[in-house]
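Researcher: Hi, I'm a grad student and pretty new to this. My advisor asked me to get structures for two proteins we've been looking at. I'm not sure of the right format, so I'll just paste the first sequence and hope you can take it from there.
Model: That works fine. Here's the first sequence with its C-alpha cells right after it:
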Amino acid sequence: MIIIDDNIPFLGEILSRHSSILVLPFRNITQQLLVETGATALCIRSTLQVNKYLLHGTSVRFVGTATSGTDHVDSEYLRKSNIQFADAHGSNAQSVAEYVLYSVLRYQLQSSVPLQDTVVGIVGIGAVGSRVAILLKNLGMKVLVCDPPRVANGDSLDMYGVPSTLLQILDSAHIITNHVPLVESGRYPTVNLFSRDVLPLWKRPRLFIHTSRGGITDEEMLIQLHMTHGTMLAIDTWCGEPTAINSEYLQRAAIASPHIAGHSANAKLTGSLMIARAYAAFAGCSLDTSMITDVLNDNPPIDSISGNTPRTYSEMHTLVDKIESHRAISAVTRRFSNDYPQSDRAFTSIRRDYVNHWECIADPSAACE
C-alpha cells in the first residue's frame, strides 16, 4: 500500500499500476492510518511533518517528498530507521529563477539604469542560483557569485560569474539575491546570514531579493535599509511564516508574495515525475510516466534568454509583461499588502488560491549541458 498526498498530480495514477494506493488530503495522513493500512511507502509534500511521531511502529520503508525543500522531513530519523528517502530537489528551480528575473527587470525599469552597468551578487550557486546567474549574464549584467561550500569542495564557479566572497559582494553589488538552504550549524551555517552586522556593510543597496528561507535575513535591518537608502525589496519568504508575518516589512516590499516563487505547473509535475522515478528505483519496477512528460512537452516556454546582449528598455518591458501575464505577481503583491493587518490569514489564503502557472522562460542551464 502506498499513501499519497492528493496534491501531487498524476502520481496516484502512475503508482496504481504497480501497487494498491490510497490518495487523500495530507491532514488525514496519520500514524494510525499508516499502521492500519500497512503502508510501505509514503508520498507527500511540504505540508506534512515526517518524523518519528508519524512513522514509529509503521511498515513504511520509502518516503518521497515531491518538493525541493526538505525542512519538513527528519532525514536523520529516516536514515537511522533504514527508510529510503527521496526528494524533488531542483524541481522548482526555474520557477524561482523566473521570479528573480522578474524582480531584477522590474527594478531596472524603475531605475532606468542600463543592465550592463548593474552588478548582481548571487549567494548560493545551486539549482536556483546557477540558473539565475546564467539568465542575468545572458542579459549582459555583471554577476558576482558566492558559494563557500562549493568552493571548498573544489568546484569551479567561473561559468556562472566572478567568484567572490560575501564581503566582496557587499562592497560591489547593486542587487543581492540569495539561494541557500537553511542551515543551523556546521562549518557553513546560513541562519541569519544577512544579519544586522552584515547588511550595514552593503555599500550600494539597491535591490534585495529573498526567495530562500525566512530565517536567513534580518527583516528589521532590511526595513532600515529601505528607509535610509530606498532599497527595493522583493520578498517571497518570511520569518515566522505563515502565522507571524512582519506587517511593516510586508508594507515596505515593492514585490511581496507568500512563498510562491517556486509554484509553477512545471515544478509540480516535475516533482511528481522525480518521485515516481525514485519509487521505481526503490521497488525495482518499471513505471510509465508518459502522462507527465507528455503534458510538460505540450507546454514549452514561450521565451528564452541567450547570448550576451543587453535588452533594450522596450524588450525588458515586454519580458516583464510576459512573466506578469503568467504569474500575476503584481496582483499577488496588491492583495498581500492590502491585507497586511491580517497578513497571516492572507498568506495562507493567497497561497491556497494561487493558480500554478506554466513557466514562460526556458531553463538556461539546459543550453550549458
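Researcher: Oh nice, that was easy. Here's the second one.
Model: And its structure:
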Amino acid sequence: MSDTAVHEGHRERMRRKFVLHGADVFDSYELLEMLLYFVLPYRDTNPPAHRLLSAFGTLDCVFSKPLSDLSAVDGIGASAARFLLSVGENGKDALLYRGSSLEPFDSYERVSAFFLSRMKNGNPPVLDALFLDNRMCGIAAERLYETDFSSGAVNPVSCVRRALNLHASVVILAHSRLHGALFPTESDRAGYRSFADALELAGIKEADHFLVVGDKLISLKSFRPSDFYGVPKLSEYYDTYPKGEPLQTAATARAERPAPLVFGDDGMLLCRFLSPLYEEEKAKALAEKLLFRFGSAERVFSADFESLLGVDGVGEKCAFFIRLCMALTSRRMTEKFPFGRAVTESEIQEYFTSYFAGQQDEEVLMMTFDKENRPSGVCRLSKGTVNSSNLNRRACLEAAVQKEAVSVVLAHNHPGGVAEPSKEDYAATGALADALLTVNVKLRDHFVVAGCHCVSMFTRENDDFHLHQ
C-alpha cells in the first residue's frame, strides 16, 4: 500500500472522529495536524504539527508568529505559513465578531425592504420565511417553496418544523406572484390563516405575511387588524400605516438595505474566513449561500457539521474547515487565559465565550478564585439542561473546596439560542449560591453565553432572584 493511501486512511479516520466527538478528544497538535491537511495534501502532517508546538509552545504563539518564523519550521514552508496566519487571524475575528445581526426586525420598513431585496422581478413564485428570536433579531431566512402559494403543495408543516428546530419565537412570511394586481385573493388569505394558526398552536407568533408583486408588496396582516399577536414595536407601524396601501418601491428599499441577508459586515467576514480555502468568487458564492441558510455569520460559525452540509454547495471539505477552525480558535483563546494572576471581568467573559464557541450541548462551567482574587482553575459541573436536578450542588462544593476557592464564577451556554437567563437558570443559581455559602464560598456571578454574547445574571433585575451578596 502506498504512503498516500495510508495517509488518506488515517486522515479519514481523524475527520470522522472529529465530526462524531468534537475537539475535546484531541490534543492541540492533532487539531493542528488536521488543519494542515488543507495545505499539505500529500504529506504526513503529524511531524510538522509537533514541530510547530515544540518551537512556539502554544497555539496562540503558532498563529501569532511572523511569517519568517513559521516558514523556517521544517515541513512548513512559506505557503503553509501564510495559510496558518490567515486561519489564525480570521478565526479570531470570527470568534469575537459582534456584527449588526442583532439589529431587530421590528419596523415595517425594515421587514419590507428585506423581502423586496430577496424577491427580485422575474423570479418564479416563492414562499420565504424569516425566523426571529424573542427580540425580533434574525436567526435564519429560508425559501420554503418555489411554487404558487395557492397551490395544494404549500402547507405549514415544514415552516412549523423549521421554526421549532431553529428555536424561533417569531416568523414573518412572504410569498410572491409573477403577475396580477397587488391584492390578496381569498386563497392567499386562507393560506395566511392556516400558517398563522399552525404556528400559534406550536407557541410561535406569525408577525406578518406579505404578498409581493413586482417591485411592491402588501401586508396580509392589514386585512386582520384586530388580530395582531403583540410582537414588540412592529405593531406601532400597523397602527399608523394606511391599511392595504403598497409599500415603497424595491429600488428605494435596496438603496436603504442593499444586500439581502448580509447583516453588517457578515458577508465580508465569511468571505475572508473562507479565503484560505477558495478563490474569491467561490468564497463569495458560498458566503451568500451560508448567510441565506443561517441568517448571520455568527450562526454559521455556531452551526453543527450536519447543518452546514445541508447548505447547497457546501461539501464535507468546507463544513469540516469551518468546524475545525472554530475549534482551534476556541482552544487557542482558552489556552492563553492567565490563570494565577488578577483578571478583569471582560477577560473572564472572553474566556467563557471562547470556550463555548461552536458547542452544540449545554454545559455548566465553574471558575474558581483564590483569596487574592486570582483564577485558579475551571471545571465542568454538568452537561445538559441547567436546572436543579442536573446541576449537582455537591460536585460544585467539592470542586470549590478542593481548589481552596474563596469565590467562584459560573457560566453556561444556550446553544443556538439567546443569551438571556431563563427562570430555571435563576432558580438553579439561587440554590447553588446558598449551598456555596455553607462552605464560605461566594458566588460572584453567573454568565449566560450564546454565540459571542455573554450576559451577567447578576446585572439583570429579577423579582424571584435574590442572593446573599
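Researcher: Is there anything I should tell my advisor about the second?
Model: You could mention this: The radius of gyration is 25 Å.
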